[in-house]
């Protein structure tokens, strides 16, 4: 487990850039944390490092945004509006199994809403700090890469 202090928006984006540089296709990143904790900002960093030029906006209403013009695809999901039973119907595993879609990085906001999880993933919890900054807590679950290999 790694804890990182993120003093400003740029630091959150930079963490995403570092992750994007080191993760391979089919990696799953589960993002947890309150409203406004910085989940979308981190995904914007991932997009930047993959060379995605399209601006990454929160898929709160669309549920899933797919960006395929970068080095590897980025699938950005936001489960905020869903109940766990509704998430089950989304067939999310097709994203990390890469069966019907080209394997890519799968980043999921409001992963607390997932009734089931992939076999291996990174889980990042973002929290508001009293002084307006954020803190990230990163756990690798059954992941081949650990924090050291991620250079964070
Ligand atoms: N480390 C940080 N310190 C201060 N502000 C930050 C930090 N990281 C991100 N922000 C700012 O916090 C605001 C909310 O960020 P963001 O939209 O990424 O949150 P979110 O977790 O995706 O929110 P939501 O739950 O609504 O999806 C933005 O204005 C962003 O610039
Ligand atoms: Mg968001």
Automatic annotation (TrEMBL):
Principal subcellular localization: cytoplasm
A GO CC term attached to the entry: cytoplasm
GO annotation (BP), single: tRNA threonylcarbamoyladenosine modification
Pfam families in alphabetical order: TsaE
Keyword Transcription attached: no
Recorded GO MF terms: ATP binding; metal ion binding; transferase activity
Cellular location(s): Cytoplasm
Gene3D superfamilies attached to this UniProt entry: P-loop containing nucleotide triphosphate hydrolases
Assigned protein family: Belongs to the TsaE family.
Protein name (record): tRNA threonylcarbamoyladenosine biosynthesis protein TsaE
């Amino acid at each position: 487990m790694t804890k990182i202090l993120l003093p400003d928006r740029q630091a959150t984006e930079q963490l995403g850039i570092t992750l994007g540089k080191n993760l391979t296709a089919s990696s799953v990143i589960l993002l947890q944390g309150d409203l406004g904790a910085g989940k979308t900002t981190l995904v914007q960093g991932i997009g930047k490092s993959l060379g995605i030029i399209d601006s990454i906006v929160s898929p709160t209403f669309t549920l899933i945004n797919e960006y395929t013009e970068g080095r590897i695809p980025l699938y950005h999901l936001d489960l905020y509006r869903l109940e766990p039973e509704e998430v089950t119907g989304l067939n999310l595993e097709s994203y990390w199994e890469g069966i019907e879609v080209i394997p890519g990085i799968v980043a999921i906001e409001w992963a607390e809403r997932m009734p089931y999880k992939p076999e291996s993933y990174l889980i990042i919890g973002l929290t508001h700090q009293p002084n307006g900054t954020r803190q990230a807590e990163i756990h690798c679950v059954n992941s081949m890469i650990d924090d050291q290999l991620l250079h964070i």
